[in-house]
Amino acid sequence: MDGRESATPRCIAGVLSLVLLHQSLTAGSARATTTLHVPVYGASPVDVFARNASVIGITEDATVAGNIWRNAGFGIGTTPFRFRVGDPEPQALEGLGAGGDGTNFAGALAINASGTIVGQAQHATIATYLPVRWDAAETAPTPLGHLGTDANGQTTAPPLAINARGTAVGYATAWSADGTTNLGSRAVRWDAGGTAATPLGQLGYAADGSSGASAWLINDTGIIAGVADKYDASGRRVGQTAVRWDVGANGPTELGLPGAWVTGRLVSNVEAIDAAGTIVGSAVKIDDQGRDLGTRAVFWPATTTTPIELGLLNAGSNEISSAAAYGINANGTIIGTAQKDWIAGVGARGVAVRWDPVSLQPTELPSLDQTLLIGEINRASDINDSGLIVGYSYVRVPGSLHLPFQPRAVCWLADGTLVNLNDLIDPDSGWLLMTADAINNNGWIAGTAYYDPRLPGGFVPPGYANRLYVLQIPEPATTGTTFGAIALLIRLPLFTGVRQRRRG
């Protein structure tokens, strides 16, 4: 859940629609009675050149935005898309033209509630990316403003978030008027319906006039969060910290730390913002003796700059451990990751957690494979207002030499029950759901999967192709969870003569 057609689509020509009917989940077991329909496109039942699909968000009406990379020979490039469940096919979003080598790159970075998407597109003749906006139901991009270019016309200005009103935020590299001096990055705002990049203000500047700041989040009331470089009185950069730009403010407000300041590093970070302006993220904790106790999951209420520290797993607040918060829902439930079970000389496990909005204590979310001892075990990617959490959980795959550990798409119900989304589809379908990246308040989930009808289900070859899927999980009933109609909508991009290149 993120708070993050005038032309015929030219490059995405088909949808494989898998209609999975009358799924049921009771007493922890799944029964799949599915009807699988897999049309064949072109000479091959699968476009083997599609790679690295990604999802950036899903709206309440089940419109999904993301990107597909496809290469054939030298390479064709990336194409952003917009897809609404029920439409016959996705909309391929256009770029700004193709380069002389036939490549064309564009990328979606955020989508708002109405389906307006912001991102970047490669200039047709200059090797640079320009900020763009694809208005709802439109496929042609609207170029957005930036803060100057170098002498060759190159610049950087990605919009990273857009709210329901259509206001986007991000950062832009500032250049001197003659294009010879890079003055660093400026946090900027693009107002709804406009194209100009408006600087939001910095925490300070170096002696040479350079500075750095980036706006990453905006909620529907216009509160903005991001990070900014901090400077001492002499203009020396002393680190980077989380900041908030309040509505109508002329500059950023520095967000506090749970401990002492540490010079020369990123000391805090922001990941999500809710409708009230509560910001969640992480911050380094340094005690009074200068000991680095690790990273803490924190949130900053909208009315203060003082961070509230969230609980750790298997450690006290003044012990060495780490955690980070990634998302928050309307009820104040926060999701993220936390360190668990440090093993001397080996390392620790990183596990997905949910923090209670009252006690602020974490609950570990179960994983599919309890034998994994170190590294990231599972990850919570998104949470909806009903408390359904989606993400992935790693499993050990015997006999797979190139990918011995693989993710599987999962959903944690509000009571913490773990559901492997692969248990909800026909095991002989050839689909392997690998990540669940976004969920809306109607239970629609978008993620990435592996699919190739030429290979047996569950087999993932080297250089596997990520596909995109959407499925729905309705609200759980009292005695079990009934999964009604579940639709997997898989985009196969067929590029025909085309020259190519967060919540609130």
Structural class: mainly beta
- Arithmetic mean of pLDDT: 79
- Compute the CA-based radius of gyration: 23 Å
Please give the count of helices: 0
In percent, how helical is the residue content? under 10%
As an assembly, this protein is: single chain
Low-confidence stretches: 2-50, 475-503
Q: Please report the total strand number as a whole number.
A: 38
**Overall morphology:** globular
- How would you characterize the largest beta sheet? 5 strands, mixed
What percentage of the residues does DSSP assign to strands (E)? Answer: over 45%
The N- and C-terminal alpha carbons lie at a distance of: 9 Å
Features:
45% strand, five-stranded mixed beta sheet, mainly beta, disordered C terminus, disordered N terminus, 504 residues
How would you characterize this protein structure?
- The structure is a single chain.
- With 504 residues, this protein is mainly β.
- The chain is built from no helices and 38 strands.
- It has strands at 12-20, 23-26, 29-31, 50-58, 63-70, 77-84, 91-92, 106-111, 117-122, 129-134, 142-143, 159-162, 168-175, 182-190, 197-199, 213-218, 224-231, 237-245, 253-254, 265-266, 268-273, 279-286, 292-300, 308-309, 323-328, 334-343, 347-355, 362-364, 375-376, 378-383, 389-396, 405-412, 418-420, 431-439, 444-451, 466-472, 481-483, 486-493.
- The strands form ten sheets. Strands 16, 17, 18, 19 and 20 form a five-stranded mixed β-sheet that branches. Strands 25, 26, 27, 28 and 29 form a five-stranded mixed β-sheet that branches. Strands 4-5-6-7 form a four-stranded antiparallel β-sheet, with no helix packed on it.
- The termini are close together.
- Mean pLDDT is 79; it is low at 2-50 and 475-503.
